[in-house]
Amino acid sequence: MTLQQLKYVTTVAETGTITDAAAKLYISQPSLTSAIQQLEKEMNIVIFHRTNKGITPSREGEVFLGYARQVLEQAAILEDKYKGNDGGKRQFCVSTQHYSFAVNAFVDLIKKYGQDEYDFSLRETQTYEIIEDVARMKSEIGILYLNEFNEKVIRKILKEQKLSFQELFVAKPHVFISSGHPLAGKKSVSASDLEPYPFLSFEQGEHNSFYFSEEIFAQEERKKNIRVRDRATLFNLLIGLNGYTVCSGVIDKKLNGQDIIAVPLEDDQDMHIGYIMHQKGQLGRLASTYLEALRKYI
Question: Which residue range or ranges hold the HTH lysR-type domain (predicted)?
């Protein structure tokens, strides 16, 4: 196995076709196909499924590609240190629940390490997909929270996937509401205060269990429920419908505007927000820098 072979398979995964990958790598299609087949034979795995519609990674191939990207990143760091060059194209991916501080830290990372060429991904996605992304090494780290209600279930899944949870901070529950909401002037709000208003939450797709909800107390019965896919839509509905969502209380007014405020929720339960990674994994320089930036915003 060589670094060149690892570069070949990650490029194929990135482009989705042998033709495009060969053109990008400046080699012939037969040479690229042969190199991949040799690697698959040496590793005794099938990295790609080949169909008439293109080429896609197998499940074990996705895990292998995750390791390959880490190896290439470490090789780039070595070249950066000892050859005095830029270490090549930077690649990094993080999967996260919908947190503004996760976006802010991502911006800081790009400002620090963004060069002429980089390939960074920020996946604001569903909770189960965050776990799956890190397990399959699509993402180096994932950002989510644990609390008394979901911890047992989430930790069981993390253990099965050989992932660990590292706490970043503990947050008291708040609600996000619009600055013009009837409850905006209160120092804190209770569940009974919120009862007349629509509760907004992020949908969790086929894994739509309360244990995967991004919102603490999502299991509570409510008369008015609205589920959305993205943060912009949720904030627009908060303003337009006098809705609310339950959150950590960490908000960035530059990112989210002046129309959304955080008000403490009267409850003693905590949110333990942290990141997940492989148990035996070692964070790369980009992941470590990203976590440093996260701590600045929380």
Answer: 1-58
